[in-house]
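Observation: inputs received (chain + S-adenosylmethionine).
Thought: call the complex predictor directly.
Action: predict_structure
Action Input:
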Amino acid sequence: MRDYKAFVKFSKPGPRYTSYPTAVEFSKDFSYEQYLQILRQQSKDLSLYFHLPFCRSACYFCGCNVIYTSKDENKERYLGYLFKELDLLEKFTNTKRKVVQMHFGGGTPTFFSANQLQRLIEKIKSIFVNFDKKAELSCEIDPRFLNEEQTKVLTENGFNRVSFGVQDFDERVQKEIHRIQSFELTQEAVNLVRTYGIKSVNMDLIYGLPLQSLKSFENTLKKGLELDPDRFAIFSYAHVPWLKKNMRKFNEKDLPGPNIKLEILEFCEHFLGENGYEMVGMDHFAKKDDELFKALKNGSLHRNFQGYTTKKGADLLGIGLTSIGEGQRHYAQNFKDMPSYENAIDNGSLPFERGILLDFDDELRKAVIMSLMANFSLDIKGVEARFGVSFFEYFRKDLELLSEYKHFYTVDKDSLKVNETGVLLIRNLAMCFDKYMKKLSEEKKVFSKTV
Ligand SMILES: C[S@@+](CC[C@H](N)C(=O)[O-])C[C@H]1O[C@@H](n2cnc3c(N)ncnc32)[C@H](O)[C@@H]1O
Ligand code: SF4
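Observation:
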């Protein structure tokens, strides 16, 4: 959903907030029966995504699928439905497969109490009985909603990664985005999870928010660095007020323009580079000893709806409202509104709303786009061998489009490599291979900007 098509098509897939060209489009042709058939046949390792959609109050920039509530009974009710969805999944797919990855995303997963999180994890482990010892278990955390008991529950159950939502440390910006979160509060949360043994800490920041400038973001990034996260996710603010009412609170005149955003991104790359981080895939920076960085270097970094990962090839099951699952040849999304979600489960069906079956062209384009966005390079010979096509012939028109960006990559018969500046424009480069995005831009329906 990179700020355009997929944002609209998937409306916040998976846990890591990001939008990008995907080369696929949901279609009504993919039926529930076909989905069940795929589930029954699946045999790969598993990656699980749980969507925990509740938040206490609205951050005005937020583009995630969120339900604002103060009532505990809403969360209890939702937990009950998640449990039933898990029981249904046990009927329809092999849940004895090895789980190599699990992510709690939101909303704010830690808006659920320690007791609720514990019950959820126990239920999950009673259905998915084969968690790999080295499984990557991660949770998104809003530092304003984290206590010691929750941290204990997560770590005692093997969670080894957390991602903190920070966005910006500048008080003026925080006021504008309706998210007051002091540096000290974030620091306490980071210290707490580290005390309990979490080794991998990610921090989310957003550039492009109202009142931000290069100077203000420099300060934010410097403060962020003081907390020494293992990874930064630095997202470009996707402004889609026609889809998200909360964004209408902003005065658009206060939003920094594309030039400032590009300056900020360049600054992030240089500043983090000087401080031991490297850009790993779009929006992400990791320390050089991080496994994502190592994977980038050996070309094995992969991207799915969980974000960047080294766990290539697992079947992703999306569980909960709006969640998206992904297999080699399909995507499947759950209902996005609570009544339909509950209704399906009450009727004994998985809450599947729609999906996509990938045809040959979709699959080929997906492979090209994912490789560019994960590894900033493409093994052309590898693609030709895997798909039995002549790359330069098959993508003749796409390559013409790409040539607009000729200063940002090099290409020969074996490979395509994006250069340092091109990395900052990777969405634009990857978009050249996305036929659905092209269709949308031709129809002048490109939904938000790329920088
Ligand atoms: C589900 S939220 C994070 C968890 C938690 N609710 C929090 O805010 O701390 C995931 C991340 O999405 C990012 N995000 C949300 N809306 C965005 C938007 N419109 N543009 C870019 N990033 C966005 C934020 O960085 C946020 O931390
Ligand atoms: S707390 Fe996170 S999910 Fe909730 S509104 Fe704010 S950014 Fe969105």
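Thought: report the result.
Final Answer: Residues 55, 58-59, 62, 64, 66, 106-108, 142, 165 surround iron/sulfur cluster (ligand 2) (CB under 6 Å). The first strand starts at residue 46 and ends at 52.
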